[in-house]
């Protein structure tokens, strides 16, 4: 309280009543401010809890998505590995056939050369 705002009192009882009234008004203002602050904090807490639930839900969704993508990647890796193995087998067989055909062509050419020499 400012000393300029304090009126002159005719008795101590009047001064005590004034001070008591002022204190009650301040208490009521404080309580009202506290209730408003509490309501604001409760609202913020509710928003924070909702945000937390939303983030936890999004986190679970993303974990599931990562798990699904990981599983697909592993399946694709296994499939690619099988395809590569088959292609390597095919390549080995093709090379073997190619070598056999080259050998056969050389034998035919040799036989042809032998026939040509025999005709002369």
From TrEMBL:
Keyword ATP-binding recorded: no
Keywords recorded for this protein, A-Z: Coiled coil
This protein's record includes keyword Coiled coil: yes
Coiled coil regions, renumbered to chain: 20-118
InterPro entries given in the database record: NUDE
GO CC field: centrosome; kinesin complex; kinetochore
Protein name: NudE neurodevelopment protein 1-like 1b
Entry similarity comment: Belongs to the nudE family.
BP GO terms, sorted: cell migration; centrosome localization; chromosome segregation; establishment of mitotic spindle orientation; microtubule nucleation; mitotic centrosome separation; regulation of neuron projection development; vesicle transport along microtubule
GO MF assignments: microtubule binding
């Amino acid at each position: 309280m400012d000393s300029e705002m304090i009126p002159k009192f005719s008795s101590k009882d009047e001064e005590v009543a004034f001070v008591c009234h002022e204190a009650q008004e301040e208490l009521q203002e404080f309580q009202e401010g506290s209730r408003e602050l509490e309501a604001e904090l409760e609202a913020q807490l509710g928003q924070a809890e909702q945000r937390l639930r939303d983030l936890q839900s999004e986190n679970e969704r993303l974990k599931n998505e990562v798990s699904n993508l990981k599983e697909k990647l592993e399946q694709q890796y296994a499939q690619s590995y099988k395809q590569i193995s088959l292609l390597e087998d095919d390549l080995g067989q093709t090379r073997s056939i190619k070598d056999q055909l080259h050998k056969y062509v050389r034998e035919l050419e040799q036989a042809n050369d032998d026939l040509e020499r025999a005709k002369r």
